[in-house]
Design brief:
The complex is a heterodimer of chains A (341) and B (589).
Chain A: H1 2-27, H2 32-35, H3 49-55, H4 62-74, E1 80-81, E2 86-87, H5 88-123, H6 128-142, H7 145-159, H8 170-177, H9 188-194, H10 198-235, H11 238-245, H12 250-278, H13 282-287, H14 293-302, H15 306-334, H16 336-340
Chain B: H1 2-22, E1 36-41, H2 56-62, E2 71-73, E3 81-83, E4 103-107, H3 122-135, H4 143-150, H5 165-173, E5 174-177, E6 180-184, H6 192-199, H7 205-210, H8 221-224, E7 245-251, E8 256-261, E9 274-279, H9 283-292, E10 297-298, E11 314-320, E12 324-330, H10 361-370, H11 373-380, E13 385-387, H12 410-419, H13 424-428, E14 430-437, H14 441-455, E15 461-468, H15 470-478, E16 484-490, H16 497-504, H17 509-513, H18 519-530, H19 534-550, E17 554-559, E18 561-566, E19 569-570, E20 587-588
Parallel strand pairs in B: 1-9, 1-10, 14-15, 14-16
Antiparallel strand pairs in B: 2-3, 4-6, 5-6, 7-8, 8-9, 10-18, 11-18, 12-16, 12-17, 13-17, 19-20
Helix pairs in contact in B: 10-12, 11-14, 16-18, 18-19
The chains are: A mainly alpha (341), B alpha+beta (589).
């Protein structure tokens, strides 16, 4: 197992290298003037375009630009993100905690509800719960996230004023900045509890509700479907029949004998979901004005903020490699056959 | 099974009740956060350094709130001034402006303190002006002072090396002694007071140097000049100015800048305790924040306007004059090489246009008479724009309201096109593209109106409308690849020179991209710039307006602006020269 993990870790820099080469190669297709766009904030600057191109070396051959970038990275400098208005490493560090918090809070309901609904649908196949779960999960999935996001925002904020957008409300935000509030993790709910400020905790939970609800709605469908079909397959196995024949209680048969085996494909899917959420959920973060990493990554790409996009892509690549590694380890844990090979 | 149906029914009922019952939360609500003003916009500032910032999102925060200028605009006027950090506005009559129009003398206001308690002196003002000039980042605002005071556009040569002699010249041109600051210009420049009202933001030398800022000597210039990134300047996120608000924090993670009242301000302290500039990119949440009172002022673009109309407790002030001119530019020297898709075949064969298609003035007149201005204004700008007679915005000094101008006239358009190139154009027809930056629906609509108008003249006339991304737009524009395109220009300072130069000078931002080169125009622009006699100066601008009509290269529209705020916001007033609301006199009640 140790060598297996070690080999995967070696892969990490290789993947990151590949991603950056790919990005620089893609950028080669763009004219220098286009790559200078991130630096033009006002049409009155148009005349300075040649000077800006020269200053940032945007007209140099792409391998030179790549070499310069790589040399800076080797010195721990991933460049300046024109869209985040801060260095790339700092941008990742400052935007990631919000996304991590959002992921944590969304992942739990997605997993619990998804697996529970999927199991229930399989066990009560062709009964009401099966149909209801199917209808809901498919309709949640079939409308784009910005529709759900806006709808939730309109109703739960615009009408009811329960769950506002952003990360904190004005009072809470000013309190957090005032100095007595210590920042430990940058996860607002955790920091609020560590500071013993329940009202800040509650305020940040209120702000998390909208995006968490949106993400749960759109991510749950696949999990329900996969759990259901995998569960159906397992329920047909001989050992389940044997368990039933032994006279075991139906709950034990389903929860112990069947479900653990049915979860194997679910692990892969859920690890991908987790990594997907961590890499940032652009639309949801934008609609709820949640200061996460996905919103920044998308904005950087739109504005051709080269260091920003490159840094973001490297970060997501690393997340994906690590996420797959975690999935494989879990896989081995659940399925002895994988371990034995 | 019954319970499921009942539960669903109950849930639906609850949802309906919530929706119905929840309506009107925003109505009649008390003033939210009465001592804090929340301004919600869609763009981050680039830098809060007054010598680096050259975009409205940045200037809106610092200008006149954190930093102040020597003089200020009087009320809503862009041409009349009141003293601010100076005790009087210089004029020839009070001896503040020398007879030759080149030297301006400012008496500096005594007992004005910076946010850290240091007293402001003439030396601080001098330091601020020099720092502004010599930071000179590529694409920055430094040219505004460099060109007027030293007669150069940049501090660097073609290879990017700093010209060391300029510092001595600047040091002699700007002199501080006691409470007096005098500035000698390279050549008389009539717009200098307008520039001082906006670009003389005064910073705290002693405080800045203690934070590692430029020490004011020639030796430190290399480090100051043309920083590689905004973060490299000392005042990127920190400030010590004289203004009514102190900068508390620019939080780039949560994308907000927080200002707090300066209690030892030299005038009466501001009424508001705090100002927060927040970025919310998406219009949906921005609008809801306004509706819920979590935002006091929000940015609303024209296409979104209908969504804030009729929201209870919201006030919309419309038809605000702006120092912005939108142009539809015709390119006299199109770069047709390399398979340019926007010129079709590149020949006058009915399927394209040659490089010099617009070089014939009759073609340009034909387009100008064909364009349906009324429709473009009504349908594309929601009626919130006017035709502008020339590049100088209506209402500004130098604008000639009596200048004859193009009106939509199909007969004249046809006559002009028939005359162009001895009838060749009329007989062969053409095809070219009008470009706009994608996402800008106003420009897209105007391009489509123009297409319909021109194509209606002759079945052989074809105009394509193409949206390109902003980045690509810059690239194509720069290479003179676009036959026609649409873009705006906002004043750097309120003076006609800042409009005729980019629009008509052969080296101007747009003039050069259009390949326009009229030596007479270039000379008139320079003459007007140096003319201190207002009447004579006006006459030259009238002459330029006349040329803009007789030898048209651009069609001009002047869009008006709007501001959307909660009706509990008091004390707001407009000045076209402002980059955002001036918050000092404002309050909430």
């Amino acid at each position: 197992m140790g060598t297996y993990i070690g080999r995967r870790m070696v892969l990490l820099p290789v993947v990151a290298f590949g991603v950056t080469v790919l990005i620089f190669a893609l950028l080669q297709f763009l004219a220098p003037e286009m790559r200078a766009a991130a630096f033009i904030t006002n049409p009155n600057q148009l005349n300075a375009l040649p000077a800006i191109i020269q200053k940032y070396g945007l007209d140099k051959p792409v391998h030179i630009q790549y070499y310069n970038w790589l040399r800076a990275v080797a010195h721990g400098n991933m460049g300046w993100s024109q869209t985040a208005r801060q260095p790339v490493t700092q941008a990742i560090r400052s935007f990631f905690p919000a996304t991590l918090e959002l992921t944590m809070y969304s992942f739990i309901p997605i997993m619990i509800i998804g697996v529970w609904l999927g199991t229930a649908a399989a066990v009560h196949r062709d009964k009401t719960i099966d149909h209801v779960s199917r209808i809901f999960s498919i309709s949640f999935r079939s409308l784009p996230s910005f529709v759900w996001g806006l709808l939730i925002l309109m109703i739960l904020y615009g009408r009811l004023n329960w769950f506002p957008p952003g990360r904190l409300s004005l009072d809470a935000d000013l309190f957090v900045r005032a100095g007595q509030f210590r920042v430990y993790t940058n996860l607002m709910t955790v920091d609020a509890l560590l500071n013993g400020q329940l009202w800040i905790f509650w305020d940040s939970v209120r702000h998390l509700m909208g995006p968490v609800l949106t993400l749960t709605m759109i991510s749950i469908a696949l999990l329900v479907r996969i759990t259901r079909s995998s569960m159906l397959e397992v329920l047909r196995q001989d050992y389940v029949r044997t368990a039933r024949a032994k006279g075991l209680h139906e709950d034990v048969v389903i929860n112990v004998h069947a479900r653990k085996n049915a979860l194997i494909p679910v692990i892969t899917l859920s690890s991908l979901t987790f990594v997907g959420l961590l890499g940032g959920v652009v639309i949801t973060e934008t609609i709820f004005n949640f200061p996460g990493i996905g919103r920044w990554g998308a904005f950087a790409a739109q504005q051709l903020d080269i260091p920003g996009v490159t840094g973001f892509a490297m970060f997501v690549a690393a997340l994906t490699v690590l996420g797959n590694l975690a999935a494989d380890i879990l896989y081995a844990y659940f399925d002895p056959r994988v371990r034995l090979q | 099974m019954n319970w499921t149906r009942q539960t669903v029914a109950l849930l639906v009922l609850a949802l309906v009740l919530m929706l119905v019952g929840g309506a009107g939360v925003a109505q009649g609500q008390a003033v939210r956060n009465p001592d804090t003003l929340v301004v919600v916009r869609f763009g981050d500032p680039e830098s809060l350094d007054p010598a680096y910032a050259y975009d409205t999102a940045s200037s809106e925060i610092i200008l006149w709130h954190v930093y102040e200028t020597l003089i200020f605009f009087n009320g809503g006027s862009t041409g009349a001034f009141v003293p601010m950090l100076a005790t009087e506005v210089p004029s020839v009559a009070n001896g503040g402006i020398s007879r030759d129009g080149k030297t301006y003398t400012f008496k500096i206001r005594p007992n004005v303190r910076f946010h850290d308690g240091t007293t402001m002196t003439a030396e601080d003002v001098k330091y601020s002006l020099l720092r502004f000039m010599f930071m000179d980042r590529d694409g920055g605002p430094s040219w505004i002072l460099l060109s007027t005071i030293l007669g150069v556009e940049t501090t660097r040569d073609d290879k990017g090396a700093l010209d060391a002699t300029l510092f001595n010249r600047a040091n002699q041109a700007i002199r501080a002694s006691g409470d007096t600051l005098s500035i000698t210009l390279h050549e008389p420049y009539a717009a200098f007071l307008s520039i001082m009202a906006q670009w003389s933001m005064t910073i705290n030398k002693k405080w800045g140097v203690s934070k590692g800022d430029w020490n004011g000597t020639a030796a430190g210039l290399a480090k100051l000049n043309n920083p590689a990134k905004p973060e490299d300047t000392t005042l990127f996120t920190q400030a010590s100015g004289t203004g009514p608000f102190k900068l508390v924090q620019w939080d780039r993670q949560n994308r907000q800048a927080i200002l707090e009242r300066n209690t030892s301000y030299w005038r009466a302290p501001a009424k508001l305790n705090r100002v927060i500039y927040r970025v919310v990119e998406d219009f949906g949440p921005r609008r809801l924040m306004l509706q819920q009172g979590d935002a006091d002022i929000v940015t609303v673009n024209r296409p979104e306007q209908s969504q804030v109309e009729g929201v209870p407790g919201v006030r919309i002030v419309d038809d605000l004059p702006q120092l912005v001119v939108t142009g539809l530019y015709m390119n006299l020297k199109i770069d047709t090489t390399g398979g340019n898709p926007d010129v079709g075949s590149g020949r006058l064969d009915g399927n394209g246009v040659p490089a010099d298609f617009f070089a014939d003035v009759n073609v340009r007149r034909g387009v100008a008479y064909a364009f349906d201005y009324a429709t473009a204004i009504r349908d594309c700008n929601r009626g919130k724009a006017t035709v502008n007679k020339g590049p100088i915005p209506n209402g500004m000094f130098g604008y000639n309201p009596n200048q004859p101008w193009f009106t939509t006239d199909r007969a004249r358009a046809e006559a002009a096109f028939r005359e162009a190139r001895g009838g060749q154009i009329w007989n062969n027809g053409f095809k070219f593209t009008v470009a706009f930056n994608s996402g800008n629906t106003t420009r897209q609509c105007m391009a489509q109106v123009l297409k319909a108008n021109v194509e209606a003249l002759n079945p052989k006339f074809k105009v394509d409308v193409r949206g390109v991304t902003w980045a690509q737009y810059l690239s194509l524009y720069r290479q003179s690849k676009l036959p026609m395109w649409i873009i705006g220009w906002a004043a750097d300072y309120p003076d006609p020179d800042n409009f005729v130069t980019p629009f008509m000078h052969s080296k101007g931002t747009y003039g050069s991209a259009q390949g326009y080169n009229n030596p007479q125009v270039d000379k008139l622009i320079v003459d007007a710039r140096n003319e201190t006699d207002a009447a004579k100066r006006r006459a030259i601008y009238f002459q330029l307006d006349k040329i803009a009509f007789e030898d048209p290269i651009t069609l001009y529209l002047q869009p008006s602006g709007l501001i959307v705020m909660r009706s509990w916001v008091r004390g707001w007033y407009n000045n076209p020269a402002f980059f955002g609301p001036y918050i000092y006199p404002m309050s909430k009640q």
